[in-house]
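quick one before i forget lol
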Amino acid sequence: MSRRAIAITAAILFVLSWVFPVGAGIVRSPRTTLPQWWGPVDVTLAFLVALGALGVQVLGHGTLDKQAERTTYRVYRITLHAVFATGVLVIVGGNRINWADCVTGFLWRSWLFLYILPWWLAAAGLQSPTA
């Protein structure tokens, strides 16, 4: 498997893993509403995402260039707006969202995304063109 294919596979797993905290956040009682397989599949997928992130970091190690750094910086600047948007969502969503069951999933996935982004860009070869 090529570096790019592994990076894309890790990204797909990462996006799929977001379904679980979303599902846990929109139901009133996740322990009784969601199917029994929900929790074990969430944990298994989270483990695969963590392994994929580690693999991407290893694949991208030593290949970071200025373009990957610039692209990462741009994404970081854009992602900062998500902090404000999350605050708005908390105010608007209020107690219609089950925060206790979804916020940890959102937080660690967001942190992991931002942490491995430079290596993922290097492994996937998806740096933006120079300005």
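fyi The chain has a mean pLDDT of 87.
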